[in-house]
Specification:
This protein is an alpha/beta fold and 340 residues long. It contains 10 helices and 15 strands.
Length: 340
């Protein structure tokens, strides 16, 4: 039994070395990652008992993905085997004014072709307290919308809290498809995570007076977004990440958490980015940990944003940091000095 359950797709990540462009040389780094898997790894690193649920093919590549999670302490016993292929994504890291590029090759993956009978949600949620998924998973196809709905309904039946990161991906589905599916799924959600674009893309809710590409964020606008989301779906809490992109390498990063009464903003960090993929997932993992451990609204948003700030310094999808490192940064030590 695991205290926390996450559900989604884990993919093979292929990326040129450093800041090389695709096929600038003949080498690519092979690692694994995916939204809900990344959240599970963050929580495992914090010492939590967390299970990741998915479907992977029963061959060496699928086993490699499973092993990557096992090595970091994630419970993989609830993963279903079957299908022909593991999804792939190709990542070219941006630099300066050249943005990163992500190309998906995930059609007909094992999880995309999964069936409802592949997952025994009543058994999966035995002893669980928290369930997390993202908007990426139902975007994989109509079958996944139904599986996510079954998972959410079972979580509610078992008294499990549900969190969802809206995570709109325009390469996977249209805004109309996202709105229809997420409007149903969000009825089950207690904690909603969004960013400056997702609320607009999925539900047409926009922060007025903000220019994300120009680096201008209006805090009052995001208060309105959070309240509109909470009012629409009855969320207990709404978390919004606030990113100002100065360049591909340099971002300002902060967050806000609304608990139905107070709007709490974190301190802002200036990030010099090593790898930004998984940044939002590390925020989600930090937020879940903070809320499960009874932190106040202000403490929770500070912990989540600090956890995510640290992820931007770590290569790969997975956030390989400890609670102590996050607490140190959240407490005000952002010096980056050598630890001896």
């Amino acid at each position: 039994m695991s205290r926390i359950v996450t559900f989604g797709e884990i993919m093979l990540r292929l990326a040129p070395n450093g800041y090389y462009r695709f096929f600038q040389n003949d080498q690519m780094q092979a690692t694994f990652g995916g939204g809900e898997a990344n959240v599970a790894v963050s929580l495992a690193n914090y010492g939590e008992d967390v299970a990741f649920v998915t479907k992977v093919p029963a061959h060496a590549i699928g086993q490699g993905a499973v092993n990557s999670l096992r090595a970091l302490g994630v419970d993989t016993s609830k993963i279903t085997r079957g299908g022909d292929r593991l999804g792939i994504y190709f990542l070219e890291k941006g630099a300066s004014q050249r943005g990163s590029v992500c190309i998906y090759d995930r059609a007909h993956s094992a999880i995309q072709e999964a069936k409802p009978e592949d997952f025994d949600w009543d058994k999966i949620f035995e002893g669980a307290e928290w369930f997390h998924f993202t908007g990426i998973t139902p975007a994989l196809g109509p079958g996944l919308v139904e599986i996510c709905k079954q998972a959410c309904a079972a979580a509610k039946k078992h008294g499990v809290k549900v969190s969802c990161d809206l995570n709109y991906r325009g390469k996977l589905w249209t805004r109309e498809q996202a709105r229809a599916a997420m409007s149903e799924l969000c009825k089950y959600v207690n904690v909603c995570i969004s960013n400056e674009e997702d609320a607009k893309d999925v539900f047409g809710i926009e922060a007025e007076g903000s220019d994300i590409t120009g680096g201008k964020l209006n805090k009052d606008g995001y208060k309105s977004v959070a309240k509109q989301l909470a009012d629409k779906f009855g969320f207990d809490k709404v978390a919004i990440t606030l990113r100002s992109s100065i360049s591909a390498n340099d971002n300002d990063w902060a967050g806000m958490l609304y608990d139905g009464k107070d709007f709490c903003f974190s301190k802002e960090y200036h990030l010099h980015i090593v790898d930004r993929v998984g940044g939002g997932d590390s925020f989600g993992g930090g937020l879940i940990y903070a809320l499960l451990h009874g932190m106040t609204t202000q403490q929770a948003i500070e912990f989540a944003v600090a956890a995510s700030a640290l992820k931007h310094s770590v290569e790969g999808d997975f956030n390989r940091v400890s609670v102590q490192e996050v607490q140190k940064l959240a407490g005000g030590d952002a010096s980056g000095r050598v630890q001896r």
